[in-house]
Amino acid sequence: xxxxxxxxxxxxxxxxxxxxxxxxxxxxxxxxxxxxxxxxxxxxxxxxxxxxxxxxxxxxxxxxxxxxxxxxxxxxxxxxxxxxxxxxxxxxxxxxxxxxxxxxxxxxxxxxxxxxxxxxxxxxxxxxxxxxxxxxxxxxxxxxxxxxxxxxxxxxxxxxxxxxxxxxxxxxxxxxxxxxxxxxxxxxxxxxxxxxxxxxxxxxxxxxxxxxxxxxxxxxxxxxxxxxxxxxxxxxxxxxxxxxxxxxxxxxxxxxxxxxxxxxxxxxxxxxxxxxxxxxxxxxxxxxxxxxxxxxxxxxxxxxxxxxxxxxxxxxxxxxxxxxxxxxxxxxxxxxxxxxxxxxxxxxxxxxxxxxxxxxxxxxxxxxxxxxxxxxxxxxxxxxxxxxxxxxxxxxxxxxxxxxxxxxxxxxxxxxxx
Length: 418
Known about the structure:
Oligomer: single chain
Helix content: 40-55%
Order of helices and strands: HHHEEEEEHEHEHEHHHEHHEH
Strand order of the largest sheet: 2-1-6-3-7-8-9-10
Structural class: alpha/beta
């Protein structure tokens, strides 16, 4: 595992450890004050903080922790040049990137706010390397048809590939479904890598700006742009398209087709359950301090409660409080062919299966854009929606039947539009 660690990871881990220690101390102090409150002992200015000598002790612990953390970071920063040999490991090591991407999905907004080196920047990957939109590749290396693949929560661009274990135990790349689709249709495949713990609207805004820069500097004329998304990536893509329309960006004129694989268009029950836990923990003074643990989850995760797309869906609200679905309806983009692929663990489709099953994370109705409110329904035509059975949420990325289904749909819609 050491071969997958980079020198900057040590500084990032030290910053995480400092934050975790401070958070734990805050919880302990909150429980302490909750017990004292039952005995009539008043709190400090904040209801979960102690006062007097006890409060001084907790403040000292916090101060020492911050001082040690700052000092450790300073030492590690100076040592990074001497530890450069650790960065000889491939920067896109699938093992390291999988861990970092998962961490970004869970607390990515906090990593970014803290300036932690583990916060992933938004980049486009071409042939395994980050692409600089302002320094495009040579015209001989790309084409005028672009296929963009957008991953989901806690994931990364390498997970569009399937991997096999070699005889020496290392992971080797196997079939890349994005590459297969691109080769079959003559596309240049680009893979988005981003911090999935940020708000969907923030990632959508940045994706829109990134595509605007990319197409303005692409070395050959771009005839069409096709986007294949998985899970949260579908919400990010819809947000990007919506914001581009509002801002009058012209990259969307090249957008012809979008494929949504297991996208929670109307949210996912797992986050709604997390929101219920928030309320349960906050219902008594004894458990309220522990609500901080449940509220560590990122903005990207809480956006999945209802499927937030734009800033107005969350701005000015406490994202951990229970509230009704107040999203602004955002329809599918006009003039763009859209395919919704939903998965279910059930063997066949039925009303009971739709209610009890789904792909393990996203219900069928949400993945197909169906909603009880007609204003929120996403209109996918019958030929533009499909349900695959005995398939989980993650299997949508690697199932050969899904790959054939998407390939056939892309070819059919390419013929229809030509």
